[in-house]
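Progress note, project year one: complex with iron/sulfur cluster.
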Amino acid sequence: MDIKIYILSSGKYSSRIVNNMAKMGFAENMVGIHEVDEDLPEFIDNVEEHIPQNLPEADLILAMGLFGDINMIIPAVTEKTGAKSIIVPIYHPKQIPLGLQKEIEEEVEGKTIIFPKPFCTLKPVDDPYIDAFAKVFGKPELEIQSNGIIKKINVKRGAPCGSTWFVAEKLESTPVDGAEMEAGSRYHNYPCLASMSVDNQIGDTLLHIAGYKIKEAVKMELGFAAKSAVVNDDICQGGESCGHECRDTCPTVKIGDNTIIIKENGKAEVNPETCGNCGICIQKCPSGAIEIEDRVKIREKSINNIKS
Ligand code: SF4
Ligand code: SF4
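Model obtained:
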């Protein structure tokens, strides 16, 4: 799809994404980039004077790395470019307070606006422009060929910063058993520019969430989690005796994953695909019903084996 993307960019976080988009063949889709000074104060009296002039027509606005009030230029830029869709990735817990997010949403009413937190949690949202972008960039998805050793990895969708392509290249020739943990450490070598501060809405850092997503992509293909929280059904008191603290404090549940589900009998169950192995549920469960187990199976048929 031939989408026209206009970019509001500030700082290293954003330039890395712009560079990766160009590398992945999106240079011609970027119809303009406006650099926003990263030293602007968080609170700005007159936001209008920062609105870029002579804006081109665009379908999709990417507003990346802008911190605080300067994000209020997004509605005017959307209006002037005629864009229908907007992505505002969040890489730091203090980047856009919820009140400001709501204000922006109200100002662009009728357009699709999303705030993926962090950017590598982006999935299609039933919007033609965002979904065209999310075909290539967003929550990592891989295709792995292996015969005990990883032979080949195809990145179906990668983190916009480029980390997924970096990790995929490094994983080739890695034994399947260690691949998930290796993906986690390779991802930390990139390094990810998401914040290391705990996000109070999620209860974990955005850097960790991004790490869970690349490991999830590996697990999905290999069919097992190297480590996952597991609920002991005999000990779980779920139902009337427990308020399901495990589910209510799990960071991946808070970003919209079904990591902890409550079964009909009221007891909890962990989905190893999306469990980030953070251990928070273990600390919060009042009954001590959860522990981390090794090599937890995800699904019947695991690897797309190559006959060697
Ligand atoms: S917090 Fe513990 S006891 Fe309660 S539902 Fe979760 S696993 Fe079960
Ligand atoms: S260890 Fe527990 S809290 Fe952490 S991601 Fe897994 S299920 Fe959620």
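The first strand starts at residue 5 and ends at 9.
The pocket of iron/sulfur cluster (ligand 1) is lined by residues 231, 236-238, 242, 244-246, 267-268, 285, 287, 289-290 (CB under 6 Å).
No further modelling is planned for this target in the current period.
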